[in-house]
Amino acid sequence: MEQIGIGGLGIEMSRIGLGTWAIGGWMWGGADEAQAVATVHAALSHGITLIDTAPAYGQGASEEVVGRALAERGRRDDVVIATKVGLEWDDAGEPHRNASPERVREEIEDSLRRLQTDYIDIYQVHWPDPDVPLEDTAAELEKLRDEGKIRAIGVSNFSREQMDAFQSAAPLQTVQPPYNLFERGVEDDVLPYCAEHDVVAITYGALCRGLLSGRMRMDTSFEGDDLRTDDPKFQAPRYAQYLDAVDALDLLAQQRFGRRVLHLAVRWLLDRPGVGAVLWGARRPEQLDPLPDVMGWTVDADAMNEIDRILADAVEDPVGPEFMAPPGGVTT
Fold it and tell me: Which partner for 50 in 6, 17, 105, 286 could form a disulfide, CB atoms 3.0-4.6 Å apart?
């Protein structure tokens, strides 16, 4: 397993981290807790030491699963726990942004309790809150670090300008943007910013909600609160275009590298400039089985160019991950 450090903090972590949004069940059609715990254990057995979660993933359910799994295993200090702050939810479970200092204070205690730990390695603002000055949120996180409750400060879904404003009040160690073969907007601003300012990018959405797994078909259906029912990539006519791209990418992966599209999608991310770590979402242990085939090779420049050509030819009307953004502002 490849490793990366967070500058000056003595934090070393695997370049592939376990993403636990689906483990919380919310917006993924539910989850089985025993399977979820087993998934965390499987990730650790594969050499993954970075576990990323958030209170909003199942309204605390994901954090509780991670806490239970790590408590059963023991050895807390060799795992890097990353969680988030700045979203609250209403009685219907709908999230809203709230990154006020008061909310930060409330959330940190809830997260520590759910995770069964007395410190969090990476504490990330989940979404920028337009109703709260970024500097106010940053200053409160810096206080938490001074108190020893967190080790590193991060943000998620922030622009370059928002990270600049945040850093006027507290140093920033990590940023978590959406990034995958189909969603590449951060190449123009966020990733260059990370390279310039020594910020570690921990990207999410590596398989683009399963599109790049190689398992999706035209008749694949999604039910209940599954977010893919609202994802424009999974709607006609785009869905067919993206599936055509996946087929071509899978053929490239087999012919050039003896791998499949899933392996190519994750390896491509690890080899992109500015990417520090990549989150691999899973909610069943077997979903981590392909992980070893991502290691020990690289996507060369010729293959990078061929990938770009495939995407340009297949996807006529590309669309980003904007549909996932929760409502802005503090609820009343």
Answer: 17
Look at residue 4 and tell me whether its pLDDT is greater than 90: yes
Q: What does the pLDDT look like over 71-111, one tens digit per residue? A: 998 888 899 999 999 988 887 777 889 999 999 999 999 99
What is the rounded (10 degree) CA torsion for 51, 55, 57, 60?
A: 100
Contact 89, 95 (CB under 8 A): yes
Q: What is the mean pLDDT of residues 14-29?
A: 75
* Catalytic member of 57, 123, 179, 239: 57
Owner of token pair 């990549």: 278
- Residue range 179-203: average pLDDT? 94
Q: Per residue in 294-331, is it b (16+ CB within 10 Å) or e — as a string?
A: beeeebeeebeebbeebbeebbeebeebeeeeeeeebe
Selecting from 2.60.120.560, 3.40.50.2000, 3.30.1490.10, 3.20.20.100, what CATH number does the domain 12-324 have?
3.20.20.100
Domain boundaries, the chain: 12-324
The question of whether 242 is a catalytic residue gets the answer: no
pTM higher than 0.90 for the full model?
A: no
